[in-house]
Design brief:
The chain contains 6 helices and 2 strands; from the N terminus they run H-H-H-H-E-E-H-H. It has 144 residues and is mainly α. Strand 1 (83-86) and strand 2 form a beta hairpin. The protein is globular and about 35 Å long.
Length: 144
């Protein structure tokens, strides 16, 4: 899991774990791996800002997004371990303290350097799309 690679210390035999430290690059990697779109980050920050159960309609209105975007984004956030969906609605629910810490750092970076965060998200999705497209390229000169 990406969170584990972002500087978790080793606690052995009752010793105190080392403090978790993360560079800006670590936070950008977390962002690129966790948020398939800027909508996903914005939606998570909305859930985080008002810790309650949000209905899909509330999120559509608040973010001025379509139901399709909200639905797919919520599914991605649940898969990333950052939110939950129940009969009452969607809520901010990081899977553990590392995830909570990473979201906090991601929010700080997004508030201070929004363009850098957007570029990280877009470049990650562009890389995925390019890899998918490359899988369908016809290769010339092979004997397959």
């Amino acid at each position: 899991m990406l969170l584990a690679s972002l500087g978790r210390g080793n606690a052995q035999h009752g010793a105190q774990p080392e403090p978790v430290t993360r560079s800006e690059d670590d936070v950008l990697r977390f962002i690129a791996a966790s948020f398939p779109s800027v909508w996903a980050l914005e939606l998570l920050l909305a859930l985080k800002s008002e810790r309650r159960n949000w209905t899909r309609e509330d999120l559509v209105q608040s973010l001025r997004a379509s139901e399709l975007v909200v639905g797919k984004t919520l599914d991605a956030l649940v898969a990333a371990g950052l939110a939950t969906i129940t009969d009452e609605g969607a809520a901010y629910a990081p899977v553990n303290q590392d995830a909570e810490d990473c979201v906090e750092l991601a929010e700080q970076l997004y508030r201070s350097r929004p363009n850098k965060v957007r570029r990280a998200i877009v470049s990650a999705s562009t890389s995925s799309a390019a890899a998918f497209a490359d899988a369908f390229k016809i290769r010339r000169g092979t004997d397959d």
